[in-house]
Amino acid sequence: MKIASVIRTRGRNRAAGLVIGIIASVTYGMNPLFALPLFGEGFSPDAVLLLRYLPAVVMAGCFIAGDRKRSFRISPAEAGLLAAGGMLFGVSSLSLFLSYRLMEAGIASTLLFIYPLMTAVLMAVIFHEKLRKGVWGAMFLAMAGIALLYRKSDGSVLNGIGVLLVACSAMSYAVYLVMVNRTRLCRMDSLVISFYVLLCGSMLFLVRLLADCGCMGNFSLKACVNIFFLALLPTAVSMFCTNYAIQRIGATLTAILGALEPMTAVFFGVLVFHEDFTFRIATGILLILLAVILAVLQPGRRTSR
Fold first, then answer.
1. What's the predicted TM-score (pTM) here?
2. Per the domain annotation, does 303 fall within a domain?
3. Is residue 302 part of a domain?
4. Which of 261, 277, 270 is nearest to 31 (CA)?
5. Long-range contacts, stretch 212-221, CB < 8 angstroms, 24+ apart
6. Does residue 66 lie in a domain region?
7. What is the domain extent for residue 47?
8. N or C, fewer C-beta in 10 Å, the chain?
9. Hey, how many other C-beta atoms are within 10 angstroms of the C-beta on 242?
C-alpha cells in the first residue's frame, strides 16, 4: 500500500509539474501581448522593462524576507557576478524588446529560442565540452529554419538590425546561463539569484531612462492594465512556475516545454496584431523548435539551475 501511495504521489507531482511547466512557457510567451500596446501608448522599451522588472523584484524580495531559510546576504565576489548577470539579463531583455519595434514579435520570439544552441557552443568553446552529433544536426535544422524566416514568400527580408538585436538577446542570455552554471552562483538559491539579477537589470533600465535613452508614456487605464499583466504573467507567474516545474519534472523537460513560448507569441501575434503567418513561416518555426528539442534531449549535457 505504501508503494502504491508513493507511486500515486509521484504521478500527481509529475502531472502537476507538466501543467505548471506549460503555464510557465505560455505566460512567458505573452510578453508581446502586453508590451506592444505599451509601445503604442508612448512607452519606450526601457520604461516597459523597468515597469516589468520592479514588481518582480518586490515579490521575490518579499518571499526571501518571509523565509527563514533564505537570506539577502551575499559575498563581494557573488555581488560582482550577480551584477554582471543582471547586466547580461537586462541586455537580453532590452535587445528583444527593441527588436519588437523592427520585426514581427512572433518571429523575434522564435529566433530568440536558438539560445540553447548558443549555450551548447559556448560550453564547447570555453569549457571544451564535446558537441554531440545530435547538436550538429540541431544547428543545421536551426539554420534552415532561420533561412526560411529571414526571406518571406513575397521576396522581402527581415529587418537586419532587428535580426542582430535578437541574436544579441540570445547570446546575452546564453552567456548568462553559462555564467550561472560555471561559477559559484550555481550553489546559490535560485530565488536569491533572481532577486539580485532582476534588481541589477532594473538599475540598467533606470539609468538609461535618466540618461534620456527612453521615456515614460501615457498612464491611461489601458496602459495600467497592460503594465499590471506584464508584471504578473510573463514575469512573476512565469518565473515562479518555471522554478516549480524544474523541481517536479527536471530542467530538461521544462526546457522542452519552453517550445510553447514562441508558439504562444506567434499565436497572439497573428490573432491580436494580425502578423503574417504563411506555410513558409510555419515551416521555419517548426524547424527551429525541432532543433532546440533535439539539442536539449542530447544525453550528458549539463543544464543550468
1. 0.83
2. no
3. no
4. 261
5. 213/44, 213/46, 214/44, 214/45, 214/46, 214/47, 215/42, 215/43, 215/44, 215/47, 216/42, 216/43, 216/44, 216/47, 217/38, 217/41, 217/42, 217/43, 217/44, 217/47, 218/41, 218/42, 220/41
6. yes
7. 2-296
8. N
9. 24
